[in-house]
Amino acid sequence: MLRKKIVTSIAVGAAAVLLMTACAAQSGGTATAGPAAKVDLPVLASFDPPKGAVLPAGDGKATCPAGLTLGYVGAQTGANAQLGINIINGVQLAVDQHNKANAGCQISLKKFDTEGDPGKATGPVTQAVNEADIVGIVGLPFSGESKATGNIFEQKGLVHITPSATNPGLTTNGWKTFFRGLGNDATQGPAAANLLTGKLKAKKVYVVQDDSDYGIGLGTATTKALGSAVSGSDKVITAQKDFSATISKIMSNKPDAVFYAGYYAEGAPFDQQLVNKGFKGAFVGPDGAKDDQFIKLAGDASENTYFSCPCIPGELIPSFKNAYSAAFKADPGTYSIEGYDAATVLLSGIDAGKTTRADLLAWVTSYDKDGLSKHYKWSATGELQAPTVFGYKVSKGKILPIGVIG
Amino acid sequence: MSETTPASSDNAQIGRRSAGLPPAAPMNSAAPVNSAVSVLADVDPHLAEAVAPDREIAVEVGENLVEVKNLTVKFGGLLALDDVSFTIKRGEILGLIGPNGAGKTTCFNAMTGVYKPTSGDVLLEGKSLKGQKQHNITRLGLARTFQNIRLFGEMTALENVVVGLDARHKTSVIGALLRLPRHQREEKSAIERGMALLEFVGIADKAGILSRQLPYGDQRRLEIARALATDPKVLCLDEPAAGFNPAEKEELMVLIRKIRADGYTVLLIEHDMKLVMGVTDRIVVLEFGRKLADAAPVDVRNDPRVIAAYLGEPEDGTA
Amino acid sequence: MLELLLRPAMENDWISFDVPSLIQNFWSATFDGLTFGAIYGLVALGYTLVYGVLNLINFAHSEVFITGCYAVVLVLSSLGFGPSAPTMSVGLIILSLILALVAAMIVSAIVAYLLERVAYRPLRRRNAPRLVFLITAIGASFTIQYTIYLVRGANPEPAITMFRTSPIFDVFGTLITDQQILIVVAAVITMIATDQFIRRSRTGRGIRAVAQDPDTATLMGVNRDRIIVITFVVGGIVAGVGALFYVMLVPSGVQYSGGFVLGVKAFAAAVLGGIGNVRGALLGGLLLGVIGNYGQILLGNSQWTDVVAFVILVLVLLVKPTGILGTSLGRSKA
Amino acid sequence: MSMVDGPKVSAGAESARLGADASSVRTTAKGTRTQRLRDRWNDLTRPQQWLWLIVVVVLAYLLPVLNIPILTTAPGNDWPLACFSMASFALIAVGLNIVVGYAGLLDLGYVAFFAVGSYTSAMLTSPDSPFLHIPYLWTIPVAMAVAMFFGVVLGIPTLRLRGDYLAIVTLGFGEIVRILATIIPAMKGQVGFQNVGRPPGVAADGIPIFANSNGTPWYWLTLTVILIVLLLVGNLERSRVGRAWVAIREDEDAAEIMGVPTFKYKVWAFAIGAAVGGLSGSLFAGQVGFVNNQKFDVQSSILFLAAVVLGGAGNKVGAVLGGALVAYIPLRFTAIADYKYLIFGIALVVIMIFRSKGLLPARQRLLAYGHQAYRRIVGKSDPLSQPPGALPPSVDPGAAVTR
């Protein structure tokens, strides 16, 4: 039959061209950009939590009225589900540890799903604030949904600690109930700049940002902190797949490092294509890119990658890691420990007898203690007073901490 | 379908406007069975009045209402219509016949604006229809039916007719949105006239039935009623008898005569010679896109060229 | 109000044109655009064939294509390909790619076949109206997309690098890579093969007959259902070819929703070239790819590609509603 | 595939005849259940119909307050806000139904008009916007007008195209609006506009009545808007406009030849549909209080279409029902969020194959005074014996759709 003939002829034709090109491919790769020598940063082996850090278990003698509830509001399903699950597990672990130690004070946890979508967030948030037994919330994980719903918490005087929303603008709304359990992009920017020009000794940094609130904010903050080290910049778009236009600009710019302000979904293929085109420098991404998915998507190319993250390597705290792994059959993920610490702040308030929303809000406002990951004390607008930013690097397919960078 | 005809024995005069018509055109040998003194004899006078054309026509009865002038239509290299000219006189029933592929429907489509003529022109009341949008041609007074029925299936019979009536309505979208007085007036009169039209073609009792659920014959009648609803100066019927049995054809002839008697001018495309001979006043014959003859039925029937053109073709192909 | 509208515009907040950049990158944009356009063309072929025969926009064709991409990725990753350039021998690479190509063609063809049998045929049996077909197609597209989503997750598949690309020669100061040549040549070969198949083979004649006049074709003894199935399958096979080269060009582009936008653009390409016209599909694809790329560089953002593509499509349709080459599948000259 | 869209010559009149008969048999055998419901409704007297309608409307208004245990979305989502969500989807579906259901124009980019409405309201009220600021309620008509303008601008070139091209062009248009919102700096992409305005009024506790957490007033506002829109759409349906749309849907060429200016009415359908889309977008922006580029994707357009088709394309009450269901199901069964689009995809295919007319099959009433006319046929033998003008004027509430 003719069809068969055609199929074979296509295959033969394709094979011939392939052969031709593959031969050409073998004959020589092209390495054009000449970056600085690779800096080998030592991996942080362990992380000591502050001595006397507040733990959810407390002293085990707490008593409180029955029916008190904490809430988690954020993504449980949808494209951003994994981040939500990391946080939920952290919160769940804290609540479980608390309840196990304090027979006289049993707190329950209610979860509300926003899918991470600002348009869908008002429903779950309103439901949460309208449930009278909820006295404190861990959430919302993303900046967009936080923007859309912060005023609802404010109206009902319900305290909420976000474990992961890092947009600096969130604390400029005059909300008294909003607290950020980690550094914002403004603190991450200088830290990333420090990682790039300090630890990695880059002289020329090319800054690429995506179109998200997060990417724009972080890109701007980092560019500002880098100052004259910025040799060029470009923008990419959420869901972009092909980065050849940006890459050719980078290759002609010949920077020592590329800073990418955005998420792993674009960052990983970007890095992969960049490395495949012969880029030899370092690739630095923020917390939004720090995910095992980055390595999965970029493969070996990710070996040039570093991350800055206001998150603390919870996996280096043995007590936390072991308890987490035992409970959820997985290692703690990004923001697991932030969720755990945020829940702990709220639980310790309940243990101290702050069982109304107003009391708990006052408790968090004046809170000044160490948590497992860092010291928690907030400014009047809800920013952490002394946030820490960690650096990470990819080594042999794993994301490993390299210590505090800011 | 006889059950649908209203059984009124009132043998009164026919409608106002039709009173000035010339005496019924000479019937030829293939005359219909129920030859009556007047074809409107069994029609309720109020009904005839309600259905009769409702607007002024610039030309007098017997004058040229439509002039087809040197009409030529080409499809690519194919000459579908070659320099065809004829006229339609007000008040007559003109037949347009020809063997398959002779260009009847093409001519029709060119007249009603479906095709753009390559050259030539069509005049209605002396005014050119060139460049007019199809819906405007209908509003100007050239209404048609379709060879293959094209009703609005999800509408009732009455609604179908009212769509035709809308061609003469003036309500704006805003007027309809807010139910302004003109809209209410037009809607009311549309129901009256629509029902009258359905009654006239004999399917008033089925006004509320979806048109796609109507029997085939009634669908054909509904198409005629819908075309009449646009208040045409010329009603063009495209093979209205297609798929009819002889009895149905007889009824159709009665209906066509009734329509003419009520004051309408009719252009009839038909394949069925018997029907055409029986009902028309004059016949235009097309062959290979050219006009072959233009004469009274008797003369056409005896025209050797026409006979030659139809040689081998049965006169009544569909029966 | 006018001032309020203009003020942001003057601050360059709306649209800015970067003409120097376009001039500087003109040739690279052209060659990149041709490469992308070749892939649009391959996908467009499936739309054009089905539309020619059934007068149906097979909205789910983008999913036929993306399942082919998944086949390529899964086959190649199981053969040891990954984000980094493979280290295996040339022969092995070629063998693997042929294997992936065949797998993609088979998978896409099967999906296309199932689509026809499960979704469309029952509707044809009932003589369903156009709208019903289109909505079914959209439903089928969603079903396939989200089935993939549930099985493979929301994340894109890890990149597959088939071989390290290298420049072959230099045109107007722009390096043309082996990959670009391969893709364009393969697309042209596929297009010619399909064209020949439809023009010369017995089945091809059947396809043309059904496209021209389904009723008459049936009367003349053409098995309409069989012809329709074959049309879907051929569209699927060509989509499979497109899938291999798409993965080659955009290694990280395989995601459950990834086919959709590409599919829309491919359909636009088909319409642009003249839907129902096999050669028009490739022409439309190449044009769309090139023009979209110019727009992207001129306006400084890759997303302008889609905007420009659609504006061009609308403009062309307004001037020439039948597309550039115009003729239908049934009338394509033998 | 004929290049000239003229009347086509059928394979034979006889087959057309057979087809007509066969289809009539098939349709009468089917749909008896809905027919019975319809008949029962028609047998009611006018005051009885009104009474029923009032009961239904009152129940609809009480919906967020009643919070019926089986229906409620409470554990996961605030019920009054879920009600608002349902109402706003219902409104969208009513608007899209004009385009798809009545006029038969497949619009796959309807979300664009929703987006235009949202952005109009946001950019005219949000402090993040450099534009002129006006009170929120005034932005609603502005949003409708702007959306309508976009509808006309899109409609004039594309509505001249053949039917199925329209689908692809509207799909592209939907994407373009979303992309423009992303890449035009002034539209603020994902950053979006915060603190979108709301209707005035502050409750006793100092919280605005129309706060984004307060679903009930938003629901009541939207429900009232829906009722007004239904009434007006009902007026259009039972006029030459509705008849023109349905005629275009049934057979565009025949409609044109019957004197319907088809292009004009298609543009009107597009414009009116766009205005309703803009209206719902404006309400949505007001309720959420935050607008960015995230929710105006093709998937939303498809969900809107699913709502119309599910309810029964061409039936405005069906559209309300379909819209409410499409919004309700994922909120009620939060566990299916991941499966939502898969379920809708399968549902679309299955509904099209087995019940292509949707849950409430369309049966438009296209005559303002058709009721009386049809009643006369049943009652009397001579439909013309009644003098014209004796017909009592009737005011049909928009919600009463069934004949």
Task: Describe it.
Chain A has 406 residues and is an alpha/beta fold. Chain A folds into 2 domains: 6-47 and 185-309 and 390-404, Response regulator (Rossmann fold, 3-Layer(aba) Sandwich), CATH 3.40.50; 69-183 and 313-373, Rossmann fold, CATH 3.40.50. Chain A is built from 12 helices and 14 strands. Chain A has helices at 2-27, 81-101, 118-130, 143-156, 185-199, 213-226, 244-253, 264-276, 292-298, 318-328, 336-351, 357-365; strands at residues 69-74, 108-113, 134-139, 159-162, 178-180, 205-209, 230-235, 257-261, 282-285, 305-309, 368-370, 375-377, 390-395, 398-404. In chain A, α5 (185-199) crosses α6 (213-226) and α11 (336-351) crosses α12. Chain A is globular. Mean pLDDT of chain A is 85; it is low at 21-37. Helices cover 34% and strands 19% of the residues of chain B. A 6-stranded mixed β-sheet of chain B has the order 6-7-8-3-9-10, with helices on both faces. In chain B, strands 2-1-4-5 form a 4-stranded antiparallel β-sheet, covered by helices on one side. By secondary structure, chain C is mostly helical. Chain C has a single domain (18-159, 203-331), classed as ABC transporter involved in vitamin B12 uptake, BtuC. In chain C, 72% of the residues lie in helices and 3% in strands. Chains in contact: A-C, A-D, B-D, C-D. Chains B and D meet through α1, α3, α4, α5 and α6 of B and α1, α8, α9, α10 and α11 of D.
Summed up:
The complex is a heterotetramer of chains A (406), B (319), C (334) and D (403). By secondary structure, chain A is of the alpha/beta class.
Number of helices of chain C: 13
Count of discrete structural domains of chain C = 1
Structural class of chain C: mainly alpha
CATH topology of chain C: ABC transporter involved in vitamin B12 uptake, BtuC
Instruction: Based on Cα principal axes, name the global outline of chain C.
Output: globular
- Got a strand count of chain D? 0
What percent of the residues of chain D sit in helical stretches (DSSP H or I)? Answer: 55-70%
Q: What is the straight-line distance between the termini of chain C?
A: 60 Å
Largest sheet data of chain D: none
Write the layout of secondary structure elements.
The complex is a heterotetramer of chains A (406), B (319), C (334) and D (403).
Chain B: H1 45-51, E1 64-75, E2 78-89, E3 93-97, H2 104-111, E4 119-124, E5 127-128, H3 134-140, E6 142-144, H4 157-166, H5 173-177, H6 181-201, H7 216-229, E7 234-238, H8 246-261, E8 265-269, H9 273-279, E9 282-287, E10 290-295, H10 297-302, H11 304-310
Parallel strand pairs in B: 3-8, 3-9, 6-7, 7-8
Antiparallel strand pairs in B: 1-2, 1-4, 4-5, 9-10
Helix pairs in contact in B: 1-6, 4-6, 4-7, 6-7
Chain C: H1 2-10, H2 19-24, H3 26-54, H4 61-78, H5 90-125, H6 130-152, E1 167-171, E2 174-177, H7 178-200, H8 202-212, H9 214-219, H10 224-249, H11 258-273, H12 278-299, H13 304-319
Chain D: H1 13-29, H2 32-43, H3 46-66, H4 79-102, H5 111-125, H6 136-158, H7 163-183, H8 215-237, H9 240-250, H10 252-257, H11 262-288, H12 298-311, H13 316-332, H14 340-354, H15 370-379
